[in-house]
Protein 1
Amino acid sequence: MDLLRWNSIAGDLESAIRVRNNYRNVLLGGKRFPCTESYSILLGLYVHKGKNVEAVEFFKRLIDEGVNPNPITLTIVIHHFVRLGKLDAVKEVFELLPLMRMKRTLKQYSILVEGFSFAKRFDIVKILVEEMHWIIFRMRR
């Protein structure tokens, strides 16, 4: 996993994919698949490199292979949608998280607040900030 992470930090997508595929091939013999973290690392690298179509396809493959996205993976997806200006789509994804039994994180809220603020959609910003307030309030209890 460290080699995958190092290649990602270096921005070397091809090497990161090769490491993941080698790792995956070893695990397939034992009927296991790479952990969600490896998918999150590569998904983040696709997004960082601006490979939008590939990032979406990779995320679909993640789901098809039965990997459950974790909050880090979903934060990457949310950030990706915001960068693309797909605010209505990201809002739908964000609203689905509790239905998937996924907790919304303050990082996800921050990304959304920034995106909707930039788009001057302050009605949604207000709702997000109020929800953030309740999360922080519950954390302090």
Protein 2
Amino acid sequence: MYEESKGNKDDNKSKLSNTSKSSTSQIKVSNKFENQSSLEYKNVKSNLFTQEMELQQTLLSHLSKRIGRSWRDTVRYLNIPEYQIDAIQNKHPFDLKEQSYEALKLYITQHSDNNWKINLIHALEKARRKDLKELSEKLILESNS
């Protein structure tokens, strides 16, 4: 009887050993998938950030070429303080394109949340630049597809 229970103990040890090996391999496989999905998430996040930066650059470029003197009204509607508008004008006194580019870039860097697109479109509409509002909407929609 003693030998029989000793045999049962050996069987139990071998079952336990197999179970722990199985659990270890499951953990390794699980960790592999977690690492892979974490890497995929980082790649997607990086791609979205890159797309967002490209959209910002495209919008800044197109708007600064076309906005002219309306840039002051537009950035006022975006709540850029008057002293910052004056500083931009003084920095680039005879270059409307550079003034508008810098002012819009300032807005985007200060408001990096996702609402910057909507706020920009509303500001262009309030500044009576429907043409630029429609251009911005088109560029934003194209970037999302």
Protein 3
Amino acid sequence: MSSSRKDHLGASSSEPLPVIIVGNGPSGICLSYLLSGYTPYVKPDAVHPHPLLQRKLTEAPGVSILDQDLDYLSEGLEGRSQSPVALLFDALLRPDTDFGGNMKSVLTWKHQEEHAIPHVVLGRNLPGGAWHVSGQRGHALWGGLSPSFSPLGAGTLASPFPHSPPHNPASPSSLHPAPTKASHAL
């Protein structure tokens, strides 16, 4: 008879995870943050510098960005990415970065544990991907996410989202699950 350990959610550690994020760069880290149950909302008093986007954001006050029509919200946005959702995320997280400004994010984040999905982030290089080759300029390009490292050597990423804990995706020397109450130990 095999013994099966239970994690903090009561799930067996031998059960497969429903989501595996391949890549621990900025996109993978942001996806992990969303899957950890952090939900973006527009700040009630926020004013976005893009007039069309500002008008659209006021149409559904108090509704999570994730529960809105992302195609509609991203219409008319331009930038370096070919992905409309990436352009929208960049525009909301750092509204005027493309123009050299430093305007604060129009987003606020709420941790909704009931929306968390168990997952693991896998990466073969240092967490942060492009940050390690783009230096300080990369911090602005990736919305303020910045890599730092814990004394234990596992990669730790300072969250771009105010009032949230650090996030620890996979380190280059070993694979660790994303440290959320929703993730399983490997």
